[in-house]
Input
Amino acid sequence: MSYSIGQAAKLLGIAPSTLRFYDKEGLLPFMERNKNGVRIFKESDMEWLFTIECLKQTGMPIKDIKTFIDWCIEGDSTIAQRLELIKNQQRSVMKQIEHLKKHLGLLNYKQWYYETALEHGSCSVHDGIKEEDVPEQFRPYISSKNSLRNKQAVCK
Output
């Protein structure tokens, strides 16, 4: 089966212009064109594109993706290099996940904060809150003086 650029883009959840950009950057050396110069994507091309999009979505720079593709084309002599590139990207993703977990924790805290304020009709309910009244997972977000950190900023 073959796909047009629009169909391929839709399957990947990206814009056709992104596929044109990838082509321009040399990320699609496997892609064929018909006699009119229109890009044609085969099933095997789609597998490559899913890998490219995965690497891109994990924050890998285009130049590194290009290097990876070039190594794949070179063959087995570059397996160790490809493995190292993938391991480095895995480490980068794990760091991103840890940062996102911290951000999610703060968002969860703010949700609790505003739900409590809404329930009481005011953010001032948090002025005299006791540490034991704060759910355990949100205690890192309160100060040691039993008042919420940045309570003025949080309520704005």
